[in-house]
Write a structure and sequence with these properties.
41% of the residues lie in helices and 9% in strands.
């Protein structure tokens, strides 16, 4: 008889465990947020190329609204916003410390201080 593998879907959602994990992630990024971008300077050229390709692709598809579910410090959505092409750009992240940096860098963007995975507090909640 073959052993059946269980998946995340098979398990009951444990809200307390989820919040604990999210809290641990947030705490980890609190100490990294102020230096996060400094650690990845070698990726800047690749990021710029990626953003050019992404922008080109989005334009061909006629996309005018963007949602970055893990925007961090805003390194990807801020350059896209500066193109002036997109109507609505929304950034969200699990780390409030990272979001605070994004908010300082891009005051005109809609940066959500929420966990989009939380059905009560996520994007669909009207917060």
């Amino acid at each position: 008889m073959m052993k059946r593998h269980t998946s995340v879907i098979d398990h009951k959602f444990d809200k307390k465990k989820y919040r604990l994990i999210i809290g641990q992630i947030d705490n980890a990024y609190k100490s990294l947020a102020s230096v996060y971008d400094i650690f990845y300077p070698s990726l800047e050229l690749k990021r710029n190329l990626f953003l050019q390709q992404l922008h080109s692709f989005l334009q061909k598809k006629g996309v005018r609204d963007l949602l970055d579910c893990a925007c961090g410090t805003g390194r990807e959505i801020i350059p896209l916003a500066k193109t002036g092409v997109y109507r609505n750009i929304v950034g969200s992240d699990l780390s409030r410390a990272m979001l605070n940096i994004a908010k300082i860098r891009a005051t005109s963007l809609n940066i959500l201080d929420s966990d989009i995975g939380d059905r009560k507090q996520g994007l669909g909640s009207g917060r």
